[in-house]
């Protein structure tokens, strides 16, 4: 029997081609293996193109759905904590990732429900462009959507610090601070003094000098303290000298007066403390008048003398300044404090454990914001109600401050009566200043504290504290 030879070219080479040949045969089509192979290639190519078209349509639909999803991240501010969340509500979403945050100070976290949270503290101002990547079930291709978040610059970085021209009249350093360590006196523990003054950002922006000033002292011979703070009017060209003269002359006059009349004054105070009658009050108020009130008058005349030396090139208004002045002493029965005040700012006896604060001045607020009265106005000396006094067992701090501090912490004169506002100020101070006894670093610490940020409040800042 002869063997039968079968050509391999005539036999389908795959099971699929065999199945295709069988189906064609049932349809009455006798196709060659080559035709079947061509048919399979053609059909596969057609199906592949159809598959790609359908997948592309699904991908386009998914991308459009992602693009139109309500996903928003609010803008922020450089240097301030930022936290914003948005849910990516797209059906079949998986594998969410966020790219583009390296070096921005921000991080991204994704919860199981598709909520994306951006959090952190942006280190730079400007736009941050991030990209959200994800996949949809049944599609291997990656979907993406870009977001742009604007971070406004930290306002503090926009302020300039221009130096004061070296050739100005009456130059003054941009900052000043002092610490007076006071030992025991008459066997009683005393309080220390710390004071600081700093040129405001608004002055630094223009390269203009500091207009505030202060003087503080303690006399170890008689136990009397003197504290003076002044705020030169920003609109007056020589107010920096006016405040310097006012504090210097007022402190000197008070110190000299207390050295001269201190013993008699102290006897009058002791008598009044024992019996607060009108008769006993009269000599005390007379001594206060002769010391504090006349100290203010002396400061006024010292400024007048400076004006005269200008030979007609300046007026009293050019040296306009406020003045807050106190004298105080510790006695066996407590602390005696007397004050004189003209202009804005505040003098207060603050006791952390009490329910109220004792104000020792009434700010001279004008009809319009920023208006006040000044020591250089002769009319202010017709008002003897500017003198005040108080006797207290003890206190946390006696504070004198210009409006560069009182404005941001109290906003209005009425708020000066609110104890909780003073609690807030003291708490803020205590974060930076160590008010423990004999801390000679307190002056530098207080100077650092004066850099606190308060939007819209950029005037000179000066404060003197007996604590």
Fold and architecture overview:
The protein is an alpha+beta fold and 467 residues long. It folds into three domains: 54 residues; 80 residues, Immunoglobulins (Immunoglobulin-like), CATH 2.60.40.10; 307 residues, 4-Layer Sandwich (Phosphatase 2c, domain 1). The chain is built from nine helices and 18 strands. The protein has a six-stranded antiparallel sheet with strand order 8-9-18-17-14-15. Strands 10-11-12-13-16 form a five-stranded antiparallel sheet. It has a four-stranded mixed sheet with strand order 1-7-6-3, covered by helices on one side. A hairpin with a 7-residue loop joins β14 and β15. The longest helix has 36 residues. It is elongated and about 135 Å long. The protein starts with 14 loop residues before the first helix and ends with a strand.
Portion in strands? 25-35%
Helix run count: 9
State the order of secondary-structure elements, H for helix, E for strand: HHEEEEEEEHEEHEEHHEEEEEEHHHE
Broad shape:
elongated
The CATH architecture of the largest domain can be named as 4-Layer Sandwich
């Amino acid at each position: 029997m002869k063997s039968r030879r079968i050509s391999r070219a005539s036999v389908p080479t795959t099971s699929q081609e065999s199945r295709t040949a069988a189906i064609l045969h049932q349809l009455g089509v006798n196709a060659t293996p080559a035709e079947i192979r061509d048919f399979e290639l053609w059909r596969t190519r057609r199906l592949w193109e159809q598959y790609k078209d359908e997948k592309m349509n699904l991908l386009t639909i998914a991308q459009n759905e992602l693009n139109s999803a309500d996903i928003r991240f609010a803008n922020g501010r450089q240097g301030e904590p930022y936290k914003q969340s948005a849910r990516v509500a797209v059906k079949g979403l998986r594998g969410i990732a966020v790219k583009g945050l390296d070096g921005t100070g921000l991080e991204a976290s994704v919860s199981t429900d598709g909520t994306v949270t951006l959090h952190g503290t942006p280190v730079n101002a400007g736009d941050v462009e991030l990209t959200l990547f994800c996949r949809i079930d049944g599609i291997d291709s990656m979907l993406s959507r870009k977001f742009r978040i604007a971070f406004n610059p930290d306002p503090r970085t926009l302020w300039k610090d221009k130096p004061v021209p070296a050739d100005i009249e009456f130059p003054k350093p941009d900052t000043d601070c002092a610490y007076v360590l006071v030992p025991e006196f008459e066997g009683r523990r005393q309080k220390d003094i710390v004071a600081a003054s700093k040129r405001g950002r608004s002055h630094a922006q223009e390269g203009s000098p500091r207009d505030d000033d202060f003087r503080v002292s303690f006399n170890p011979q008689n136990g009397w303290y003197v504290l003076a703070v002044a705020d030169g009017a920003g609109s007056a060209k020589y107010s920096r000298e006016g405040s310097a003269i006012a504090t210097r002359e007022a402190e000197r006059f008070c110190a000299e007066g207390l050295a001269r009349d201190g013993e008699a004054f102290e006897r009058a105070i002791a008598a009044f403390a024992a019996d607060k009658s009108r008769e006993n009050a009269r000599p005390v108020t007379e001594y206060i008048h002769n010391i504090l009130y006349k100290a203010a008058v002396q400061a006024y005349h010292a400024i007048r003398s400076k004006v005269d030396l200008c030979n007609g090139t300046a007026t009293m208004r050019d040296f306009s300044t406020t003045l807050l002045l106190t004298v105080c002493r510790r006695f066996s029965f407590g602390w005696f404090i007397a004050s004189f005040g003209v202009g804005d700012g505040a003098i207060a006896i603050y006791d952390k454990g009490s329910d109220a604060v004792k104000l020792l001045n009434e700010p001279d607020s004008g009809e319009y914001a920023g208006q006040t009265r000044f020591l250089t106005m002769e009319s202010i000396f017709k008002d003897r109600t500017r003198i005040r006094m108080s006797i207290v067992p003890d206190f946390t701090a006696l504070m004198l401050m210009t409006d560069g501090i009182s404005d941001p912490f109290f906003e209005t004169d009425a708020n000066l009566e609110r104890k909780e506002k003073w609690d807030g100020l003291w708490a803020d101070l205590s974060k930076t200043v160590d008010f423990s006894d004999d801390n000679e670093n307190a002056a530098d610490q207080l100077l650092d504290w004066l850099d606190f940020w308060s939007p819209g409040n950029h005037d000179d800042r000066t404060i003197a504290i007996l604590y």
